[in-house]
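This section describes the prediction task in plain terms. A model, or a person checking by hand, is given the sequence of a single protein chain and must write out its three-dimensional structure as a string of tokens. No templates, partner chains or ligands are provided. The sample shown here is typical of the held-out split.
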Amino acid sequence: MILVDDLDHSEGEDVARREFPLLNRTFAIDLSDANQQRLSEALAFIEQVLENAREVKQATRSKKAADTSPRLRGYTLTDVREWAREQGLDVPPRGKMADEVIEQFIAAHPDAAPEDAPEDASEDVTGKSGAEPVEAPAEVGAGV
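The expected answer:
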């Protein structure tokens, strides 16, 4: 049987099937002695490169872990969206809901506040007030 070198398509008595490992797999190719030498040198170079390189992980669309401290109790974001639309607020049909909208919903529905939320429904989880105090307007004609 006459084997043909898979790289340069030459025939010769020195052409043989050569197996080599690469990246945890085993490959086979028919090579002459000269091309086997070139392959061995190339594999040695690749091994040296891999010893000094870092693997880059393929970017994936990771899913966020479930929120361990839900911002709403007994309501869904769909409930918040419906309420917000009824109030004339502009909300996206899906995806992240603005913190301000959720805070307004909780202020209107105190029972939606998470159990660990402060007693004042206008405060967010950080303890900061969600709304600035508003002074009552002075009556027209008062003090004249």
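For orientation: The CA atoms of residues 73 and 114 lie 5 Å apart.
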